[in-house]
Write a structure and sequence with these properties.
alpha/beta, Quinone Oxidoreductase, Chain A, domain 1, six-stranded parallel β-sheet, single chain, Rossmann fold, 2 domains, about 350 residues, binds zinc ion, seven-stranded mixed β-sheet
Length: about 350
């Protein structure tokens, strides 16, 4: 099978012919339909994840994957059969502790994420998934290749919104920072799951314009181009001088945290999603006197991804318009474009 193989940090991916795996036991072989190029792939490629998840080279990256079941091991139940359309939940877990038993595989004590650390991912024609429990049915989705973005970007956005779902009322404001792949999905999820009023912020005019086109927003929602206006003033005008109840920060840099944590109302919630910065100055006293909470998000539970896929199946969220389809041979260019900040939403390798 054809695969993009990575031999070390900062090295070009090599397109090679490698043996097609044969599934045994609980394993399932997937014929890949789509594999998204995630920002984490760029972090991994640069060696920035080596303390969190050290990879074993050579490695086939690609953790955001959709496909069709090709072949199954002897212990895989019959409802998962060749031809079934699936989305892969990538946070494999090798220890069935209390987190794993709740379907919170992403937080379990022994993690082995697909296409990141030990197991090969989906930048290849076929991908071996170590257990059928990491597959979710993708039947009924309009565009299987594009739907791969639900697996990482979508799932992470879903969990971020779940973190504030019980914190905001209909007439309260939620600020979303960064309207890239995750932000635009979160924008849609906040709209349909909370009913709260939204203030979306980005520093790129094209992203603001595109978001207006892709998402059905309410009359109360506003999108702000932070490169053009004074953000605090714009938010003050949009809210009529009120504070905001929650911030979803998909950038997670020192600058965004410092700027936006100040806008929260008492008992507000600040959710950090991006792996933007390793250190930031958090204004503890200001937070304490207003009982501000900080929450963080790492990927999603199995159930949250399943719920998201169901929303997509019922056409309640638009994932197709945030995808730019590329070929496997374009992978090196895709990583470079990501590094240069040229990608509007999500590049997906379509097979
Ligand atoms: Zn990812």
């Amino acid at each position: 099978m054809k695969a993009a193989v990575l031999y070390g940090y900062n090295q070009p991916f090599k397109i090679e012919d490698v043996p097609k795996p044969v599934p045994k036991g609980y394993e399932v072989l997937i014929k890949v339909a789509g594999a998204g190029v995630c920002h984490s792939d760029l972090h991994l490629w640069r060696g920035e994840l080596k303390d969190i998840a050290p990879p074993t080279f050579p490695l086939i990256l690609g953790h955001e994957v959709s496909g069709v079941v090709e072949e199954t091991g002897e212990y895989v139940p019959p409802h998962i059969k060749p031809g079934s359309k699936v989305i892969v939940y990538w946070a494999y877990c090798e220890q069935d502790d209390k987190y794993a038993l709740k379907g919170l595989y992403q937080l379990c004590s022994l993690r082995a994420p697909a296409g990141i650390a030990y197991y090969n991912g989906g930048f290849a024609e076929y991908m071996l998934v170590p257990h059928y429990r990491y597959l979710i049915s993708a039947e009924g989705l309009e565009d299987l290749a594009a739907a791969s973005v639900l697996s990482c970007a979508g799932a992470t956005a879903m969990r971020s919104v779940k973190k504030i779902i019980n914190e905001v009322d209909e007439d309260e404001y939620v600020v979303i920072i960064g309207l890239g792949g995750l932000g635009i999905l979160a924008l849609q999820l906040v709209r349909i799951l909370t009913g709260a009023r939204i203030i979306g912020i980005d520093v790129k005019k094209e992203k603001i314009e595109r978001a207006w086109k892709i998402v059905k927003l309410s009359d109360y929602d506003v999108l702000i181009d932070a490169s053009q206006v004074d953000v605090r003033r714009s938010i003050y005008e949009a809210t009529g001088g009120r504070t905001v109840k929650a911030v979803l920060d998909f950038v997670g840099s020192e600058k965004t945290i410092e700027t936006y944590i100040d806008l929260l109302s008492p008992m507000g919630t600040y959710v950090i999603v991006g792996l933007g910065s390793d250190q930031s100055l958090i204004p503890i006293r200001k937070m304490v006197v207003n009982e501000i909470s900080i929450k963080t998000v790492f990927y999603s539970s199995y159930r949250e991804l399943e719920t998201l896929i169901d929303l997509a199946r019922r056409k309640m969220i638009n994932y197709k318009d945030i995808v730019e389809k590329i070929k496997l041979e374009d992978i090196n260019n895709a990583i470079e474009r990501l590094a240069r900040g040229e990608v509007m939403y999500r590049q997906v390798i379509e097979f």
